[in-house]
Amino acid sequence: MPASMTEYLGGEIDCERLLDCFHGLKDLDRRVYDVLAESDTAMTVDDIADVVDRERSTAYRSVKRLVDAGVVEREQINYDEGGYYHVFEPRPTDEVADEMQATLNEFYAEMGTLIGEFRDEYDDAARVSLPAES
């Protein structure tokens, strides 16, 4: 990841990196998200593990990060004779995009406040440290 916002903005930004930037996802998380997004149906963790060629526990941790980030939904399917299993699928794109936009707006407002504080602090400091004119 770039060391500063200026470096980040100077680099190439693509959609894969967007989820990383907002949610701190790992390479495997992106792969799992892609698998889910390309699937016509919701998938179990076992299905996902097979496609990404990872152990079930590793696939589960990745799916959990995606659920925790709010970009994937979990649904419980109940067996008629008792028991259940979970399937996963991406949340609707518009909902995820709207949440990212809200986060960006919040970030922008916070940065605006910090920039204002920077102006006030250093403008006041410059006035105090300048010698008085005669």
Descriptive terms for the model:
134 residues, mainly alpha, two-stranded antiparallel ribbon, 6 helices, 2 strands, 10% strand
Descriptive notes:
The structure is a single chain. The chain is mainly alpha-helical and 134 residues long. 64% of the residues lie in helices and 10% in strands. A two-stranded antiparallel sheet has the order 1-2. β1 and β2 form a beta hairpin. It is elongated and about 90 Å long. It starts with a helix and ends in a 5-residue tail after the last helix. The model has no long low-confidence stretch (mean pLDDT 88).
What is the radius of gyration computed over CA atoms, rounded to a whole number of angstroms?
23 Å
Percentage of β-strand residues: 5-15%
- Overall, the morphology is elongated
Enumerate the spans where pLDDT stays under 50 for 5 or more consecutive residues: none
End-to-end Cα distance, whole Å, is: 52 Å
Quaternary structure annotation:
single chain
The level of helicity is 55-70%
